[in-house]
Amino acid sequence: MRTMPKKADQIFVTLRDRIVYLEYLPGTLLSEKELCKEFRVSRTPLREAIRKLEDMGLVRSIPRFGTYVTAIDINEIRCAFEVKKKLEALAGALAARRISKDRLEELRKITEQVETSPEGTDNRKLIELDARFHEVIYQAAQNPILKEFLENLHSRCARLWASNLSVVIPPREVVAQLRKIYDALREGDEEMAAKVLEDHVNFFIDRLKEKLL
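Given the sequence above, the corresponding structure tokens read:
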């Protein structure tokens, strides 16, 4: 598993989020010159970040033409969801066994933020909070290889969701699921944590299925 230098990692996260939340639409050309100027870096850390984005399927580099944001491939993301829900269950079971009090407190605070979100809250905000919630679980699982796979899958799936913001998610429905996950982790119930995390992914799949999958 390759570890990127800190600067390259910061650039990667920024570009990944711009792609996931459609600030960079499919087909957008990423200009190395402009990005180096924006981030005040040489081409080396930028290219390292772009290589990781390419590994995730979010961009494609074409010799002599440049690097472009890839199209959203519905079939590929359907496959990603199928893998994601099983790996989320594994992460939940591991986190139930290994989670610290500090991580539990992070999850509680994120759940509280979702709970206090008014009806009609921008779906992007809910997607971002949900991503943070999952990231804490990935960290709590203490398995870097699993974390890397899940972060990749989560970014692919979140981009599909962000492209369909007209599909409204009531915050109260998300809160109910996050509370179940939090309770299972707090109680150290590996089987329940695995189940509720898989159910959580299925919730999002069901929301999109009729329209896309």
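The radius of gyration is 18 Å. Try to locate this feature in the token string yourself.
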